[in-house]
Amino acid sequence: MLPVLSSPDTTPRGRTLIVVGHGSHLNADSAQAACAHARSLRASGQFEEVLEAYWKEEPSLRQALHTARYREVTVLPAFISEGYFTEQVIPRELGFDHQGRVPAGGVTQQVNGKTVHYTRPYGVHPAMTDVLLSRAREVCPEWEAQTTALVVLGHGTRRNARSREAIENAAQTLAGTGLFARAVALYLDEPPHATNWPEFTGDLDVIMVPFFASEGWHTQETIPAELGLSGPVSRIGDRRVYYARPVGTHPDVRSALLQLVREAGGTAPGTVDEAHAHAWDSLEKAASVGLTIGELRIEPFPDGFFDLRNTADVERNDLKALRVDELNAVTGRDDAGNHRPIRTRAGLPRGWLANVSRVDLRRALHAVYPTLTEEASAFEEGALKVTPWHETAARQSGLYRRVQRATPPQLQSARETICSGCLRTPLWAGEHLSTTFLNGHPRGLPCAEACTLLVSEVAHLLEEPQP
Ligand code: SF4
Q1: 453: Cβ below 6 Å to ligand 1?
Q2: How would CATH label the architecture of 276-370?
Q3: Fold of 127-249
Q4: Rg for the chain (alpha carbons), in Å?
Q5: Nearest residue CA, atom 2 of ligand 1?
Q6: Closest ligand 1 atom to the C-alpha of 422?
Q7: CATH fold label, 386-461
Q8: Fewer Cβ in 10 A, N or C end of the chain?
Q9: Is 422's C-beta closer than 6 angstroms to any atom of ligand 1?
């Protein structure tokens, strides 16, 4: 067992755990599963710092390592299967040389002075077979092995054969236990198709368990509709069909996550990163006399606490008090309830107030304006690495590869659409910034590299017209 810490996040040596999710430019709920895993791992008390990072929203995967306080970092992909993201996108965005399948013990590399352990996605861990069984027991506490079949439902994709391996392994393992008359893996998007489940189960009762990361459109709508399920228990002909909740949201997933961290060797504490410590010392010093960052106002209190609120709310005394762990969800939407994948786009919601301790100030700012403090500090030190557009474009793959063909007017058009609503100054596009909020300029928010929302807009402009 890893030791349980009494006061996380304050020690001079420690480990940072970064939980990576896919996220979305459109849907705020997409990050919920990864966020829940991060919360659960934080609550375990086994890491001095637990951060989140996403591919399609902030905190951004590309900047994740800069926000890690410790030089010993474990990166855990909260994905249900292996594939394009876990094998190509995440390692590439982290600055890893490694591309391709991650071995059972993970991959360890030095990146920018940090020792980074990258694990496999949790879905492939053998412990997930027990989670699957727990989901089956929840929906059907007792079953007759001779008269019951297990159907493990996966999404499947023809683009990567390995995405189904975890599901097939789990079904095969359970087929060999004698707990079921039959155990099969069926898929939504490739054969053998889930809609053919009667062919594979004869006249047996059936327990169906979705091998999905979270509840969503598939688990709640398409699967029940296409498979003829009316709820957790359906009568179909003479047999009963039990429909379980997805494996990814089961609390025991935490055990698989912790085992992956151990197996990847990320258990030894590391020293604090000096650049990171300097950034947060600078922030705290600036905040100790009152600080405005974009649309955020920070006021100090003599007891060492800080008040955070929208700058437009400084005169209000009817604000809703938020805990630090509520800030991410609240500031992730604007006042109309729209998702804010890039947190520095104008539209920080109003009506809330967070009173946070010195220790929690970092977590609070990670929620409101992720990575900004580290980048502003690096800018002030002349150490911010700016990535020009052609480098960002050159490393894109898959559907985004076409952005390499973007002309200057197309890039300019995307910037007008996306960056004009953002409080950051796009240094990557050659714009000038003299100083930052750390030095008294509230709108001095540097942007060192085009974000995925901008890249996505460029890709959209280059879409082939449909016939
Ligand atoms: S690329 Fe544009 S929209 Fe994205 S963070 Fe930078 S300035 Fe903001």
Answers
A1: yes
A2: 2-Layer Sandwich (3.30)
A3: Rossmann fold (3.40.50)
A4: 24
A5: 419
A6: 8
A7: Alpha-Beta Plaits (3.30.70)
A8: C
A9: yes
